[in-house]
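Quarterly update from the structural biology core.
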Amino acid sequence: MQLRAARLFSRHIVVSLGGVEIATIRDKWLVEGSTLWIQGTEFVLRRESLLSGNYLLLQGGLEVARGEKPSFVSRRMLGHINGRTYELKPETIFTSKYVVRLDGVKVGHIGPRPVLFPHSAEFPDELTLAQQVFLVALASLMWARDNN
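Predicted structure, tokenized:
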């Protein structure tokens, strides 16, 4: 899976697989969240409530997956998908590349943030395309926080 900025220095991300564009992640400007278009289907990633560290991925108003930022100061994010918890944590304190872990074992990576050049993301095969793009969108939220 390849990630690239929609335009030079854009916060919007285009996701490709085998050279074919399969999804876009459009970050919202005034609130933390995104609109995801995955193979023509719209998903919305939004905060559960204003002061909450929880995020919901919704399709047609129904919850598909849930994200959680367990600590205000940590650059760590959790993705709760089908009863399993995927942890996104920076590879080092100096990078925007996120390692994806399941039960403490590295199962993939995201990034670093695509600004000038495309970058890759890798996930376990059991995740659907929508679930993979959801994890990229969670990383995108963290990249936006890093920039502020």
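The chain is about 15% helix and 45% strand.
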